[in-house]
Here is the input.
Amino acid sequence: MLITSSRPSQRRGASRDPLHQRGATMLEALVALLVLMLGVLGLARLQLATLMEARNANARSVAVHAASDLMDRMQVNRTARFTVPPFDDYVTAWTQPAAPATNCISDPCSRAQMAAFDVWQWKQTLAQQLPEGSATVFRSNTDPSQLGVLLAWSAIQARNQASADAGNALLYAAADALLDAAGNAGTGVPRENCPAQRICHLVYLRP
Here is the structure.
């Protein structure tokens, strides 16, 4: 005898529970959002690194032009060449000198007055063009006619260096290394060093 049931049979492939579907859809959306956030964070980090490198490249360009500007000022002050040693009035420490009493742009100046005015004006410009910009000018240990110009500015990437891995730490050190004319570390003059937490650029001039 054939027995039939009045209960409708469940068809294969029938729709699943709506609550289960909504949960799966929300989980997929959260995973997609997490992937998107990681991508955005990666792009933001890359953009920040690019901006830092551009800033440092611009600062080095300013430092090169500043050294050239000081060279031009020395050559204009012709009588400074005959001091012993030459251009000794342009030797200066890191500190910012006081404003000179005589404005050599509008008033006649002696050799020493012009040098004092040049150094003061030059350092004022450095402080405006470089972040916490400063410089020292010192005499070479090996060539009395040669002057070393060490320019410094603040190192904003120092925060990232503290958490950098070994490979990136080496790249940071290589990029910011201070080398003398012979390729040796430092300025070649023991007492002249780059201040802590600063990036420095070294130029040797022979006016």
Q: What stands out?
A: The first helix runs from residue 18 to 76. Strands lie at 134-139, 147-154, 198-205.
